[in-house]
Amino acid sequence: MVQWAFTSVVLVNFKTMKKILFYLTTIIISTSCLRLDDNLFNQSKLKEYKLDNYTGELDFRLDYSYRIPDSLIHLFTLSSQASNESSATIIYAVYIGDISKIASDTVIMYCHGNKDHMDFYWQRAKLLANVGSKNRFGVLMIDYRGYGMSEGKPTENGLYADTDAALNWLKSKGLTNDRLVIYGFSLGTAPATKMAANNYSLKPNKLMLEAPFASAEVMVQDASGFSLPGTTVTDLQINNGEEIKKVQQPFFWVHGMADDFLSINSHGEIVYASYSGTYKEAHRISNAGHSTIPTTMGFQNYMEAVKIFITQH
Asked: Model pTM?
């Protein structure tokens, strides 16, 4: 009888503690400094782009053999305006390749992650520009509003508008749907999937996602450890797991099995399983973390996988 009473007290206390932790977590992550809306867009500003001369933190740095000739590097600005905005925002972009050949080339639109700016992701864009043979594919990358030298403040609608502005620029240069590949990494998987699933300036012929997240809702639950409603800490509606159900184009999916930022199980596998289009292929990379897939695979293996997907599917 005494033992039963003690157990009951422990159970009551445990339930009380869970409630306390739940409310504390809700209060903490609901504060303005920790809202997902602000922290998902982990942007930083630049006064100028340095590309190969950038000396800040990088995930990796390619050797000289991957160098792109200066004549094939084009830094420029685009005008972007979301449907709910009264004026346009100026964003920065870089195109790797011969602009005069966009009307006949295959182009990879690279949508970078939530951290930093185009200088940080320049090595990744160069890697794609070396797939198959140097400059076999054109590569376009942008800094979303609020990132790098781009004006404005990041928003979900702005994220899509900025990506669509880049697609519209490619279209104006003669690119057609059948020669467009869109590649999203981390945060960039949201606009990449959105463009592939819906009708924007161009509709990509192929979709490639690296370390995608399932939804803003799952990110909240992973971060809090509780089944919190996503609206508690974010107004974001991003849901790759649902959007990809509308994608019919061939789909390339790669995720690190040691990703401790976006778990392969709660994020990546959900996105992969939700696709039911014409073709999909999975690359589960052992020992790779969120940002280390190219280095863990090895640059040549990574580029070969990308080349085979683009050219054979």
From this structure: 0.85
